[in-house]
């Protein structure tokens, strides 16, 4: 029962791990176990949330974008340079988001129209966009950002900063948008079965390009949040974030093979990745334990999930074909089973072909 | 449209590009053409090439290994820890290689057990190995940026040693290239690698030892990544946990640029070796002409995008031409 539930709701298993993590924290020191800690971790994971939404969309279409870290850096540098050049804050952010959108669309065009495999194309643009970062910033850090810009991530109403509210809204919109709108479903359709999606009238290439474009836009937003949070922009802004974003989504049940996953799951994955960082600090463990713990938990979850999925698949297949394997068990249906036997072989060969 | 036979093979195109690139940079800055310059410049990027050789095997089987960068750091740190602990440096080097190999074996076993996409598993093991390297260096009290140094001079000199006129790392790269060419193109194991990449199910039905082949491929990748870590440690005279963090993407670039399909089933070692030199010399050449190293990495990213897009376009064009020819023949009848 529980396994079936966890199987159907992948998000639940991540939620469970997060609860366990907080429980450990509570065992060590009760005073940490408060709503403030939850909010603290939420505030720390804003960037990863935004990236995870984008990664979910791209991965839903059976794509992959490893260039988001560089897009983040590029958008942050663009916003920083424009703000220091005296452009208004909203305009600077707008241009930065536009740059991100264009970067994402370029990735999408490479993958969809030029048929370059997603990991190769974005691997190339990862280097390309990072180079643009250095070219634009001239190799130096960008400092002296306006105070109003930094205030965007300072705690405001109900302990959440304006950006934190924005991200919350984004999460809700993205979650329901991907699940309940025609466009959201079409992304999953493209990822699940590209040719099938085309046959039912979905413009597969365009849907995938838009998914990459939105991912670029969100990566740019993450870059802006990053700049606002730390108050200056190093050249290395965003490096390595792509792997964390992909890991978060995968942990939350988004399949790299496309077609499945929810934003809620990806967000929980992102929350988990950040809570490890934050909780280790609270537990007064050295920060260098982060990656090994994150990696170990990621692997355990992935391997058990793979095992469970395999077992459930085998069980389902067994129940489907039980009457053919063991005619006595099926009783009166045996005759029907005999008639259906060619169908069974046909099914098996079609499966083998996959 | 008749193509010159050299151009028919991707390796031929790469070799021509490599020669053209060296001549171009030589024209811009004659220093570049000095043999010692050409040979010793390789020390800056040869670790990427060595890792890419073994990574080619894994990618041909239809897998990928994102943990190679972390393995480099882990092997270097293992060496450092053991050295600090008083172990003989050569023994420590062997232990570091063993750690890398074990990492590769673990990757293969985890992929086999979970039946999860190798990309995901090695992403996880990448965090794990990178984290292990960080923990080890943290426990040893080495700060991230200084790392562990003061190695045995004999070990540090290795990277500058000459073998028949070639710097040792480059000679090692050449020897490994020949070895891997023989392994992939001349042995049964090599044929299995291709078969698994073409069609894993057919490979399994044909009685191919799929699991064993994968273990060997991933273990070799771990071994060579660890070797690259040691070369870096010898070259820099210190061991840091973040040694390989910038090496992963160039290594995959070299494999893909070398003509290996990221979906598996095709590719050659020679292509990877040539592509690794092509990308490496591009970086060195640009830096010599006065372009900053960051911009040159952008240009190699751009190069990857352009080359792969052109290959894809030419393939689409070829199919289109073929269709048109068929249609015209049908119309003529």
UniProtKB/TrEMBL annotation, chain B:
Indicate where this protein resides in the cell: Cell membrane
Cross-referenced Pfam families, in alphabetical order?
Answer: BPD_transp_2 (PF02653)
The terms describing its cellular component in GO are: plasma membrane
The topology of this chain with respect to the membrane is: Multi-pass membrane protein
What would be an example GO MF term here?
transmembrane transporter activity
Segments traversing the membrane: 12-32, 38-59, 66-84, 90-113, 120-143, 163-184, 215-237, 243-263, 295-314
Keyword Transport on this protein? yes
Q: Matching CDD domains, A to Z?
A: TM_PBP1_transp_AraH_like (cd06579)
Taxonomically, which superkingdom? Bacteria
What does the UniProt keyword field contain? Cell inner membrane, Cell membrane, Membrane, Transmembrane, Transmembrane helix, Transport
Which InterPro entries does the entry mention?
ABC_transp_permease
Keyword check for Transmembrane, yes or no. Answer: yes
Q: What does this protein do?
A: Part of the ABC transporter complex LsrABCD involved in autoinducer 2 (AI-2) import. Probably responsible for the translocation of the substrate across the membrane.
Q: How does it assemble?
A: The complex is composed of two ATP-binding proteins (LsrA), two transmembrane proteins (LsrC and LsrD) and a solute-binding protein (LsrB).
* Protein name per the record: Autoinducer 2 import system permease protein LsrD
């Amino acid at each position: 029962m529980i396994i079936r539930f966890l199987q159907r709701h992948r998000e639940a298993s991540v939620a469970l791990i997060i609860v366990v993590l907080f429980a450990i924290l509570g065992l060590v020191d009760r005073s940490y176990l408060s709503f403030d800690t939850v909010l603290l971790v939420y505030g720390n994971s804003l960037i990863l949330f935004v990236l995870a939404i984008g990664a979910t969309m791209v991965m839903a279409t059976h794509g992959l974008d490893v260039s988001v870290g560089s897009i983040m850096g590029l958008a942050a540098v663009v916003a920083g340079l424009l703000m220091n050049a005296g452009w208004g804050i909203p305009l600077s952010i707008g241009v930065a988001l536009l740059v991100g959108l264009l970067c994402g669309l370029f990735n999408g065009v490479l993958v969809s129209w030029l048929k370059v495999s997603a990991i190769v194309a974005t691997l190339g643009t990862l280097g390309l966009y990072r180079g643009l970062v250095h070219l634009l910033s001239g190799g130096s850090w960008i400092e002296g950002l306006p105070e109003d810009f930094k205030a965007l991530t300072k705690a405001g109403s109900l302990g959440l900063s304006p950006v934190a509210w924005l991200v919350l809204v984004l999460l809700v919109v993205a979650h329901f948008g991907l699940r309940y709108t025609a466009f959201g479903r079409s992304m999953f359709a493209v990822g699940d079965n590209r040719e099938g999606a085309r046959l039912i009238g979905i413009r597969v290439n365009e849907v995938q390009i838009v998914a990459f474009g939105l991912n670029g836009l969100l990566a740019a937003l993450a870059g802006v949040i990053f700049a606002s949070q730390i108050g200056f922009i190093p050249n290395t802004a965003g490096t390595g974030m792509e792997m964390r974003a992909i890991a978060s989504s995968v942990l939350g049940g988004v399949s790299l093979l496309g077609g499945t996953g929810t934003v809620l799951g990806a967000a929980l994955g992102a929350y988990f990745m950040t809570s490890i960082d934050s909780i280790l600090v609270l537990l007064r463990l050295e920060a260098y334990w982060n990656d090994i713990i994150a990696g170990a938990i990621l692997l355990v979850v992935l391997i058990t999930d793979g095992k469970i999925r395999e077992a459930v698949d085998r069980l389902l297949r067994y129940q489907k074909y039980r009457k053919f394997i063991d005619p006595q068990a099926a009783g009166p249906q045996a005759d029907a089973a005999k008639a259906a036997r060619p169908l069974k072989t046909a099914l098996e060969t079609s499966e083998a072909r996959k | 449209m008749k193509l010159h036979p050299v151009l028919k093979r991707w390796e031929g195109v790469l070799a021509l590009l490599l020669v053209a690139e060296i001549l171009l940079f030589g024209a811009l800055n004659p220093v570049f053409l000095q043999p010692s310059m050409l040979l010793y410049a390789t020390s800056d990027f040869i670790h990427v090439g060595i890792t890419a050789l073994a990574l080619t095997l894994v990618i041909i089987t239809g897998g990928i290994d994102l943990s190679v960068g972390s393995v480099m750091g882990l092997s270097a740190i293992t060496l450092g820890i053991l050295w600090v602990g008083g172990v003989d440096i050569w023994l420590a080097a062997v232990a570091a290689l063993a750690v890398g190999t074990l990492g590769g074996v673990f990757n293969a076993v985890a992929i086999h057990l979970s039946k999860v996409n190798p990309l995901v598993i090695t992403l996880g093991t990448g965090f794990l190995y990178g984290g292990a390297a960080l923990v080890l260096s943290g426990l040893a009290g080495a700060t991230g940026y200084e790392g562990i140094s003061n190695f045995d001079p004999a070990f540090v000199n290795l990277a500058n040693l000459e073998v028949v006129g070639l710097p040792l790392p480059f000679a090692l790269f050449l020897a490994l290239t020949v070895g891997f060419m023989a392994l992939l193109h001349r042995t049964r194991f090599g044929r299995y690698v291709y078969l698994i990449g073409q069609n894993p199910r057919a490979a399994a039905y044909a009685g191919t030892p799929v699991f064993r082949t994968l273990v060997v491929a991933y273990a070799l990748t771990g071994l060579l990544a660890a070797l690259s870590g040691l070369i870096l440690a010898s070259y820099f005279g210190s061991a840091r946990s973040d040694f390989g963090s910038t090496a992963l993407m160039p290594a995959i670039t070299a494999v893909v640029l070398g003509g290996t399909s990221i979906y598996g089933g095709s590719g050659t070692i020679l292509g990877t070796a040539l592509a690794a030199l092509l990308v490496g010399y591009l970086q060195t050449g640009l830096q010599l002409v006065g372009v900053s190293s960051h911009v040159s990495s952008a240009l190699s990213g751009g190069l990857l995008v352009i080359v792969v897009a052109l290959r894809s376009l030419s393939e689409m064009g070829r199919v289109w031409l073929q269709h048109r020819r068929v249609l015209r023949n049908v119309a003529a009848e």
